[in-house]
Amino acid sequence: MTSGKHAHATVQRTASGALLLDGTMLRNQMVAAVRHEVAGLSNTPCLATVLIGNDVPSQVYVRNKHKQAQLAGMTSRNETLPHDVSQSQAEDLIGRLASDPKVTGILVQQPVPPHLDGERLLSLIPVEKDVDGLTTASMGRLLRGLDSLVPCTPLGVLRLLQHYGALTAGKRAVVVGRSTLVGMPLAVLLARKGVDATVTVAHSKTPDLVEVCREADILVSATGRARSIRAEHVKQGAWVIDVGISRGEQGIVGDVDFDAVQSKAAAITPMPGGTGPMTVACLVENTLSAWRRQNVR
């Protein structure tokens, strides 16, 4: 399942010898590369985030996104709105950011409060500023194989696999979870020409989930169900990618029972330090890509 690509990286292994897919290290490399490019641009890209309400995890995520954007030499704006903001007030803010030529990329932090029409808010983001890749236009372009800004977490998973040398062509990939944030766009990315995996999307209604997962050369879980992927789900030698996050008494926990699975996996992401940093790295890359779309004719 491996090629020699990760020979150039500092290879870390788990206690049982599985390759550790270090997203923090790769994020730092990617952000440094973006910083090098940004230094040569005619004007500085600007990432604008819209944070509605007082969800503590969302506040942490947004702070981290701004930190990495600034490390990449970009400017950043965090627009905050109260939890009880009206639909029209939220739309007005996004509309102003959309029409502001100084703003390169716009991200509406998910989830938004339930009284708001989140789809309507996303629809106000121009496709060339949609650095989260979540609008209908961006998703449609992804599905049709057209040039587009791709959702950050699925793109981060793909970058992690590619960087560490996973062979994907002709391999069986199983994605557990079918959200529009992760599962569905990741399935499209893995099946695309050039990646060429054979993809199964599994979910809560999938019978015999253990058997389905055990067919996977690449197993990705994105359900948010703590430690739901155990040793019996994993084929010997599979690459295991943990996208899910749960918060419990023991702190942040992933979908994958890391201690049990590492002895069977050829490669595995840590939690934290795996796919989370990659999401932010791809957001920074997407902001640079958005700048190019708006400035390079």
Query: Kindly state the mean pLDDT as a whole number?
Result: 94
Share of residues in strands = 15-25%
Question: How helical, in percent, are the residues?
Answer: 25-40%
| Uncertain ranges | 2-8
Shape: globular
Number of helices: 10
Q: Profile the largest sheet.
A: 6 strands, parallel
CA(first)-CA(last) distance: 41 Å
Note the run of SSEs as H and E: EHEHEHEHHHEHEHEEEEHEH
For the largest sheet, list the strands in their spatial order.
1-11-8-7-5-6
What is the radius of gyration? 19 Å
Helix-strand makeup class: alpha/beta
How many individual β-strands? Answer: 11
Mind explaining what this structure looks like?
With 297 residues, the protein is of the alpha/beta class. It has helices at residues 23-38, 56-71, 87-99, 118-123, 136-143, 152-163, 183-191, 209-214, 258-261, 275-295; strands at 19-20, 46-52, 75-81, 105-108, 172-176, 198-202, 218-221, 239-242, 246-248, 251-253, 267-268. The protein is built from ten helices and eleven strands. The strands form three sheets. The protein has a six-stranded parallel beta sheet. The termini are far apart. Mean pLDDT is 94; it is low at 2-8.
